[in-house]
Design brief:
single chain; alpha+beta; 6-stranded mixed β-barrel; 22 strands; about 20% strand
Length: about 800
Amino acid sequence: MFWKISWRNFKRKPLRNFLTLLGITVGVVSLLAVTSSVATTNRLINEQVQETLGTTDFTIQSTEGNFPKQVLKEVEEVSGVEKALGLTHLSAEVDIPGKNEADLPVRLTGLSKMDSSLVPLKVIQGSPNSSGLFLSNATARLWSVKPGDSVSLKIDGKKHTVPVAAVVRDTMFLKYPVSGNEAAARNRHAAALPIDLLEKLSGKKGVLQEVRIQTMESGKDQSMKEIESRMHHKGYPVYIEAAIADPRQKNRLDELYLFLLVLGGTALLISCMILFQTFYTNIAEREREFAIMKSFGSTPDQIRGIVLREALILSSVGTLLGILPGIWMAVTLQKGIFRSFHVDFDYEIQLGTALPVTVALGIILPVIASLLPVSRASRISVIQLQKMEKDALSRPSKWRILFGGALLGISLFDHDWSYLPAILGAFILIPFAFRGVQRLMWKFLRNRVESEVALRNAIRQGRRHSNMAAVLMLGIALSLLMTSFFNYQDNYLERDMASTFGGHLQFRAENPFTKQEIDAIREEKGVKDTTRLGEASVIWGSGGEQRRMNVLGVDPEWQHSHPLYTLQRGEEKATDLSAKGTILLGDYAFQQWGGEIGEMIRLKTPGGEEKFRVTGVVRTGFDSSYVGFVGKERMKEEFGVAKEVRGLLALHDQQDQEKMKETLLHNMGNRLVEVRTLDEEIKWQRRYFPGLSFLFAGLLAVALGTVGIGIVNLLLMSVTERLSEYKTMRAIGAGRSQVFGMVIGEGAVIGVTGILVGSLLGFWLIGLNAISDLVDMEFIIPWTEWVMICLSGALVTFVATSIPAARAAFVSMPPVSSD
């Protein structure tokens, strides 16, 4: 019976419930899209990175660059080793038949076995047993070749014709550029081939750069110890470590995930506010009904049950209606994310977690939002009904002021959650702003009848109106924060990159640079100076998870003249790179570690497990800031490696970076894996902004659209409550334009309050970023974009208000008696 009562009440206000359903549906669509996109992107990247290691349990790396091929045979003789694979790399150039471009750089990887699960190359064309090049599907498309075709490779100045043996599924192991231009700018083409063929082409035999090992599940530690013993006994320049693929080394996407989830959650939060307003009004309209029910014996629990069932019907139907559009929006958003980063992956939308979480939140959160109105309904009695006040906005108490101010003060403490108390404080204080805006507008507009009526109605319905202004405030503040972030990145990217790039060019080789090679580079015309960087891959733990990052050995004098990082915070002697047992962490590595400055971080280095004191946090562009820095002279003693495969180069003023890059590639092309100029890196980073800005603008538009639905619903309810009042006004001579203006005036108070407080909150959040050590931003207010955001908020408010205003203006007048 109670379900029938709830269903009947649900059908009593079809337009109101339709708008509430629409708001919930939009919120669910937005949340499902962002959660599934985050899950899909995160899983795809993790799978792609993990796939590069295949079934590898351990790897053997060189402390000097390469080691004898005999190491592979020694490993294969160890009991417990199921599979072992040798790898070596070589840089070359490829001349693609029928192409007019210059020779393209390509990284060749020689494998001791081509069909090993330690490097999973899934052949889609050709034969895995053929001798020749194995190309990713994307590379084969760019080169316009297929199995059986031949390509021309240039190695050490000599040309070789090599057949294409097979085309394999796209994989990060054979990392490929999306276009030929991208290959020239940053990502080299890549190909795999049998190691015997690579040795024949290069003339270099008997050396490896890596050995991958898969052991039996039982006895892994014993196998590792035996391998270490053999390597130590033979004196090979190698070390063994667990195979860990950490996607954070190349992809810093946590901030992107957070922004997406915040925007998706905001739309659902606005939907909850819409449902709250709907039930608040419904209960106000049915006070007499509930009081009579209680007088006839209905219990508070029964009344609560009736209203909660209505909320459950609304949230369930709205959530179900949002599932299919949410999946469609998730696909669209996923395409947009990959398009923004200029990558092309085959993927499946991940709904396994996103769908049940969204459905649960879509049903539960609106029901929770209805609890306060439900509680009010259960307390109504006939006697209290005579004493109940209307929905007027009472004067906020001083305790509310103190509490809201305290929350804003708490937000000034630098913390990951600083935004939350700031937003909550603004929500608590917005009734003051609503009353202030109403009084200010009263001062200037009270001489007009429709304005006076509108402002009086705004205060009469002040609680509901101020709540909707708070929702608009949140949309404006988030829009301003996001816009400021992109504006800062676009305007100050060049300055920030130049201050942490370490010079004008960065270059990397497969094997360590010799002193003679560095001296030869230093003698090139236009070169001011050059240096080598030490590099060690270390394993560390965070939250019970094994992770990997690089530690770079830096020349202190070079850091002083051509900085690789800038210190954000640290101990007094944090800049002393030569201090033993100390390390500087990039801000992303520090955030992932979770410790504090002055504490010890435990690292498994090539030389063994060591503890280092974290003396500071730095901002850097190296390895997505997931990196550590120490003095270069400490690398051999404290980290057990002496290889230096990275180089930095500084040019004299006005020297052409691109020309110097061409010179390096011409002189050392077969030695270099990668050459990047500062100008290229700036262009590379900037190419993300248009796509990401468009995506966030779309999500913010959805949030503001949800706000519009809420305003329409709110004012329609207010107009419905006062239809008789508007009829009387029309009967005594009020024109349609005057009635229209009365409702527009109510919406204006909502809009002005939301835009004003939203702007102030947005400025506050930008300021929190500026003073935070956790976020790399300055206090930048994008004034042009701010005006556009305010105009967008005003437009949404006006359009949303016009619908209920038109209903009020065109209400039919009561018949006039002729008596």
